[in-house]
Structure to design on (417 residues):
């Protein structure tokens, strides 16, 4: 989702036309950064012991932010980049904006449906009294739909418009009330009125409700996603220095706005939207070296599938006590060499590594079923090398994939041919 026209993609002094870029399918660096964020997400969302967690692996109680608070915004920022690159490629191959919008609607619908299924599983496992309507996947759906539609019709300018409108309108809502106390700030009150008992959290003392992925605070998340889309041309042209400067400007702008509107991830204030987008942009500058890490690329290319499956497994094992028993074994084995917080973090990391292993096993099974040609390049960089050395060229083969499975993978806004 870059500009509506994508004449050339540059890599290491080589020029590839849009057809060659389309064949690459994914950009290794972007996939690796998304994979790194998924790895961090698993460590944050699945602590070995929720009572013993390092500060940076916990979300900030309210004002300010920790490393854990940057994970989801970072994912949205990188999704904006991937979405831009993918839509630009489709436009260059003759797809119309209307066709792309239909595809975005289908992906968004699948994401919302998956999010509702995840909420239903949580409601059943933890015997919740009310069904939650919003969630992480629902927020991703809204952000990708709004940003993707604007980019498909108006290009990068459309993404800038979405970011500006989202930030300006949300800032107006916040300064109108100028209250940032949990449950009684204006976004929380509006969400409580719209969602009612379907909001996630209830304050027993006051009876007030709020949702961490509420509708109003999604404006901030939309801005973060749109800023990622505006950064896509820098990724396409490999302008790492410019991307880092872009991130630095966003961070400084966010801190400047925080003088009036505080940094609060739980309602995704405009200041937080800018700071998190800036940090994500600077993190994305590491895509080049990280793109060589196969396990990170695998996680990035299957981000939403891993998220959905890992959350269902974690919630099931936690609700049934299996997770607690596993942690007790970890603690017993490591009590002499690690603190309780370290044991909790190591269990989370082990859980993340488990999903990397699962993806690896699926990859091995796929290759046995549909073995690639001997010279088939496995990464974008290998493909570029094969372009320089025609004798190494191979033919790409793809395993058969159902329409539903393909749609679910594409829902991750991955760079896909």
């Amino acid at each position: 989702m870059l500009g509506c026209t994508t004449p050339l993609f540059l890599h290491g002094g080589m020029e590839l036309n849009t057809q060659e870029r389309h064949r690459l399918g994914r950009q290794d660096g972007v996939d690796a950064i998304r994979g790194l964020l998924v790895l961090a997400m698993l460590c944050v969302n699945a602590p070995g012991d929720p009572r013993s967690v390092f500060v940076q692996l916990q979300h900030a109680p309210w004002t300010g932010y920790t490393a854990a608070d940057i994970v989801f915004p970072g994912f949205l920022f990188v999704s904006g980049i991937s979405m831009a690159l993918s839509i630009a490629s489709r436009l260059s191959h003759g797809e119309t904006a209307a066709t792309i919008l239909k595809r975005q609607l289908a992906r968004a619908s699948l994401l919302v449906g998956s999010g509702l299924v995840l909420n239903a599983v949580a409601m059943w496992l933890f015997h919740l009294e009310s069904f939650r309507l919003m969630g992480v996947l629902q927020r991703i759906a809204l952000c990708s739909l709004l940003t993707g539609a604007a980019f498909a019709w108006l290009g990068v300018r459309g993404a800038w418009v979405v970011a500006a409108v989202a930030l300006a309108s949300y800032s107006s809502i916040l300064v109108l009330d100028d209250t940032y106390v949990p449950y009684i700030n204006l976004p929380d009150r509006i969400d409580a009125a719209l969602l009612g008992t379907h909001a996630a959290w209830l304050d027993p003392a006051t009876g007030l409700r709020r949702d961490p992925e509420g509708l109003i605070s999604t404006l901030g998340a939309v801005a973060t996603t749109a800023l990622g889309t505006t950064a896509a041309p820098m990724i396409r042209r490999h302008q790492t220095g410019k991307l880092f400067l872009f991130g630095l400007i966003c961070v400084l702008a966010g801190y400047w706005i925080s003088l009036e509107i505080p940094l609060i991830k739980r309602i995704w204030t405009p200041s937080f939207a800018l700071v998190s987008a800036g940090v994500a942009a600077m993190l994305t500058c590491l895509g080049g070296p990280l793109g060589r890490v196969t396990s990170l690329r695998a996680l990035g290319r299957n981000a939403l599938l891993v998220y959905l499956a890992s959350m269902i497994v974690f919630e099931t094992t936690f609700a049934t006590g299996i997770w607690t028993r596993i942690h007790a074994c970890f603690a017993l084995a490591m009590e002499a060499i690690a603190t309780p917080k370290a044991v909790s973090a190591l269990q989370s990391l082990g859980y993340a590594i488990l999903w990397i292993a699962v993806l690896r096993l699926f990859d091995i099974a796929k290759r046995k079923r549909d073995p690639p040609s001997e010279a088939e390049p496995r990464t974008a960089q290998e493909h570029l090398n094969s372009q320089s050395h025609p004798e190494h060229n191979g033919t790409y083969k793809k395993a058969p994939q159902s329409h539903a499975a393909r749609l679910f993978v594409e829902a991750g806004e991955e760079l896909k041919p």
